[in-house]
Amino acid sequence: MKKFWLLIIFVFFFFEFSISQIKNERCLICHGVKNFGIAEGGKFISLYVSKKDYETSVHGKFACVSCHVDVRVIPHLTKLRKIHCLQCHFEDNVVGAPVAAKPEKYKESIHGRTLAKGKSAPDCKDCHTVSLCQTDSEDFMYQAGISCQDCHSGEKNLPARPSAEICGACHEQSYVDDFVGKQKQLRELIARWNNLIPEMIRSLKVSSSIAKFDEIRKMI
To answer: Is the torsion defined by CA of 113, 116, 117, 118 positive or negative?
Structure first.
């Protein structure tokens, strides 16, 4: 029985040691190839990681497996769990991850609650978007003292899309004019699409002619 437990302890420590010895160079054998990726849902998803960008990023001193903790062997044959910044960036964390922007508040935000429901929503990296969080500083809006709510709050403090008036409170007139112009163009494009929908449906029922669809496309 004693020998059995010694064997278990040996295997455990050997296993943990082997995981800690997985170097980034081994991960980059595959992930360092530019065209490396997978096909999922009919789309190609790139799994490429630039060695240079990673090593010069704020996370460059860490091993890949520091975050991808479910990697046990290389190559790993199963899909890894999605990681989240809050694995390290929380109050009183022991790894020294910065928390100046109160990242735990993300879970309480409209984006965090939407993502928790399994729906699409902006994540941390969508705003902290320098390659691989290449800088440890906050994004430029935060540095300017502008919070999400300053632009995206509507009636009763509910989330809203910024209007020209909100943009004009800080930006110069030329920016506002450009904003209004693009907004008008987008509305006109949507209206044209809506007007063409009955014709497109009729064409689908009557004919599969490519020439007919080319004719419709030119009208847009």
So the answer is: positive
Angle at 125 between CA 122 and CA 130, to 5 degrees: 135
Beta partners for residue 37, in sequence order? 46
**pLDDT tens readout for residues 35-64:** 899 888 888 989 999 998 888 888 888 899
Q: pLDDT tens, 198-218?
A: 877 777 666 555 555 566 555
If one counts every other C-beta atom within 10 angstroms of the C-beta of residue 20, the result is 11
User: How many helical (H) and strand (E) elements, i.e. helices and strands, does the chain have?
Assistant: 10, 2
- Tell me how far apart the alpha carbons of residues 134 and 214 are, in angstroms, rounded to a whole number: 45
What is this structure's pTM? 0.51
Q: Which residues pair with 46 in a beta bridge?
A: 37
The CA-atom distances, in angstroms, between 79 and each of 33, 177, 197 are 18, 47, 40
